[in-house]
């Protein structure tokens, strides 16, 4: 049976899809490329970085920007695939391990979060990468289910945490019931224990409540989550309802989880006064480190201290993601970790 590894398990690398002028980043392309370059260089201190580019010229440009940030060139790998946008968490491969521990690349459908945005190129990226040989001998399996990587959290032991509406959704998977979706996820991902949430959202999120913006496994028995203690905050009611649901969850053996709340940063608004989805649950776990999105807020340090306690064997690195949230996502949303053995490149 396949197994969906936890994010803290050994990785081959992290996939990024590089911004370009035909993405929604066009008006702030230089700023977002600077962020991507800094992130890629940071990841390269610990493991490989796979950067997906639209063509050879784009790849040369991306390589130059990352190299300028002193990235480890031996850990920098570029591949070609046209893209609509850059949210690799949701259009990238979901990699499972088979009974022998060998990787298998699952290619779920991506339809722009229920048809909100164009995705005809993004949904082909995994197949194009596989065809290029970047995943080596790992087989690719196309799965006729819309599933975004940001919608699921795994403890590596057969438990999946998700918000129901991001999967059981007529715009994503019309006609499929929750039991039918559970059966498909059990077969493909090896899930034996499902934890479904009905509540939870942060303002400005386009994904209908991706779990990676709300609650994350930090260990098989620990969940950290976006908390809010201000009744005047627009997100207070939804996050408090989610907190209540989290307290009621039990693991596969019937034990309650240790819950750790992450503070909210102060609301960040766009030019029209609309709130952007700034939050700390959107961190990325890599080999030897956790990279935390920050927003120039006093709560940044508090969130970093909490993660330092939860991941004592990993360095806590920070990256200002104020630019990223302008387009409705943050650090975890633009990255996809690839388990050990998933990349056919030198380590």
Automatic annotation (TrEMBL):
Cross-referenced Pfam families: PAD_porph
UniProtKB keywords: Hydrolase
Region forming the signal peptide: none
GO terms classed as biological process: putrescine biosynthetic process
The keyword Hydrolase is assigned to this record: yes
Any GO MF annotation of the entry: protein-arginine deiminase activity
PANTHER family, sorted: AGMATINE DEIMINASE-RELATED
Record protein name field: Agmatine deiminase family protein
Phylogenetic placement of the source organism: Bacteria, Pseudomonadati, Pseudomonadota, Gammaproteobacteria, Chromatiales
């Amino acid at each position: 049976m396949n197994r969906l590894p936890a994010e803290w398990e050994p990785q081959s690398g992290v996939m990024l899809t590089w911004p370009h002028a035909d993405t929604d980043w066009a008006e702030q392309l230089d700023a977002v490329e600077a962020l991507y370059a800094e992130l890629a260089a940071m990841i390269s201190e610990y493991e490989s970085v796979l950067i997906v580019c639209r063509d050879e010229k784009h790849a040369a440009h991306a390589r130059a920007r990352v190299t300028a940030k002193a990235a480890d060139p031996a850990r920098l790998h570029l591949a070609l695939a046209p893209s609509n946008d850059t949210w690799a968490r949701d259009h990238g491969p979901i990699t499972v391990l088979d009974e022998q521990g060998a990787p298998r690349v699952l290619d779920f459908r991506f339809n722009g979060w229920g048809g909100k945005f164009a995705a005809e190129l993004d949904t082909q990226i995994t197949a194009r990468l596989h065809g290029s040989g970047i995943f080596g001998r790992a087989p690719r399996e196309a799965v006729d289910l819309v599933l975004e990587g940001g919608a699921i959290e795994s403890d590596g032991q057969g438990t999946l945490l998700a918000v129901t509406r991001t999967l059981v959704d007529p715009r994503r998977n019309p006609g499929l019931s929750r039991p039918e979706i559970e059966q498909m996820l059990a077969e493909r991902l090896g899930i034996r224990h499902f934890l479904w949430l009905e509540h939870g959202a942060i303002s400005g999120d386009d994904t209908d409540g991706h779990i990676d913006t709300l609650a994350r496994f930090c260990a098989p028995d620990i969940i950290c989550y976006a908390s809010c203690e201000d009744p005047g905050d627009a997100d207070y009611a939804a996050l408090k309802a989610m907190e209540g649901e989290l307290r009621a969850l039990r693991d596969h053996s019937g034990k309650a989880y240790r819950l750790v709340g992450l503070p909210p940063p102060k609301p960040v608004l766009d030019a029209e006064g609309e709130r952007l989805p700034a939050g700390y649950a959107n961190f990325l776990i890599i080999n030897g480190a956790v990279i935390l999105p920050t927003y120039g807020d006093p709560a940044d340090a508090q969130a970093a201290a909490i993660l330092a306690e939860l991941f004592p064997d990993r360095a806590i690195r920070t990256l200002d993601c104020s630019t990223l949230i302008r387009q409705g996502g943050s650090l975890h949303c633009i990255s996809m970790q690839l388990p050990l053995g998933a990349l056919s490149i030198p380590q």
